[in-house]
Specification:
single chain, about 220 residues, alpha/beta, Rossmann fold, 7-stranded mixed β-sheet, 5 helices
């Protein structure tokens, strides 16, 4: 996968967007997955935003009997972190960095970009966002975890230590156990990150209450100019 060839769905809430939200989908989905969320975020009350929903590449996924599907990286076991696809994670990190660089070229600085993701997309959001040399406007991490935790202490950058991070997880999640997400939250909190932890009575999904909280998060941190 080339780091410059991710196909994306783009939706601008108004002309001349000042901010960008790059939203990464979960395993087996595609960029269309979170497009319906935009109206629920009350974008008319926010500055002009370019929402970017990239499609992950198609690859065989071991845990699904090698079936090819959209995935940011391979998954080997239900335990998720005992054995990780580091090459796939690094490859997708490079592709996401290219999306951020493209927004910079189009006039939106990194400090005006929110990186968001669900499940595998959440893992890539945390992995990539906390390794950037430039500060983001915010990070939204839903129903996922921080991968490659053993390498994180030496690879993390200071640029996003104070960046607001929204972490949300379902209490009945059978795919990514809430304990996995909570462990990532505790790690980040212990390192001094500005991270919020939210739980919801739901499985591996999003719910109306969580979307409302995300809307509030965006309204708080994307100040109208």
């Amino acid at each position: 996968m080339s780091s410059t060839t991710l196909e994306c769905i783009e939706i601008e809430t108004r002309e001349k967007p000042e901010y960008a939200v790059i939203w990464l989908h979960g395993l087996g989905a595609d960029g269309n997955d979170f497009v319906p969320v935009i109206p629920e975020l009350k974008p008319d009350q926010l500055p002009a935003i370019r929402f970017i929903f990239p499609h992950a590449p198609t690859r065989p996924v071991t845990i699904n009997n090698g079936m090819r599907m959209r995935a940011w990286y391979d998954i080997f076991t239900t335990e998720l972190v005992q054995r990780e696809d580091e090459d796939g994670i690094r490859e997708s990190e490079s592709a996401i960095r290219s999306l951020i660089a493209r927004e910079n070229i189009r006039g939106i600085p990194t400090q005006n970009i929110v990186l968001a993701g669900f499940s595998q997309g959440c893992a890539m959001t945390l992995h990539t966002g906390l390794r950037l040399d430039e500060r983001l406007a915010g990070i939204i991490a839903l129903s996922g975890y921080l991968p490659l935790q053993d390498k994180f202490p030496t690879e993390r950058k200071t640029a996003n230590e104070a960046t607001p991070i929204f972490m949300g997880h379902g209490t009945m999640d059978p795919v990514v156990a809430i304990s996995r997400g909570e462990a990532s939250y505790e790690l980040l909190k212990g390192l001094g990150y500005a991270v919020q932890w939210h739980t919801y009575a739901m499985p591996h999904s999003v719910c109306a209450e969580e979307i409302q909280d995300i809307a509030q998060f965006l309204h708080q941190h994307l100040a109208t100019k």
